Amino acid sequence: FEESVRVLKHGGSMIVFMAIIKVESIIKIAERHGLYYKTTGIWHKLNPMPRNMNLHFVNSTETWIYFTYKKKTGTFNNDGKMIHDFIETAVASNGERRFGKHPTQKPVKLMEFFVNVLSNENDTILDPFMGSGSTGVAAIKNDRNFIGVELNEKYYNIARQRIEEVWE
Prior knowledge:
Layout: H1 2-7, E1 13-18, H2 23-32, E2 35-45, E3 61-69, E4 86-89, H3 108-118, E5 124-127, H4 134-141, E6 145-148, H5 153-167
Parallel strand pairs: 2-4, 5-6
Antiparallel strand pairs: 1-3, 2-3
């Protein structure tokens, strides 16, 4: 959070994905860094991995938290229409994973939703945990600038290939 708020503009938005059990802790940490808690939402995965389905419920949801920085409002492109905090998409398709797989890869469609609602054309989108680059692909496809950070060289190379393919 410290590094993200260093570069976020006032009123800038941040979306954080995590297990629902971590929501309260993440909000407390974020607020200490000047982020304003807006809402908690759910991404419902239409085709989740059926791991251990004979032992417990299939994990078909992931929690996201929406924050703004130093202001209670930021860009919110809803055209006056209500937008629910419940988003349904399939997980990343095989086509999106053709350069390689990341264990928490988000589908471009999901990231496009957030990019389009929470930013405007020519804004800069930062993903400090870029993984396989879905946020970067969504940003470039929707006329945003993009900065991504990824420590793992393997995933950095996957992300770079995916983003360059869209950029061309």
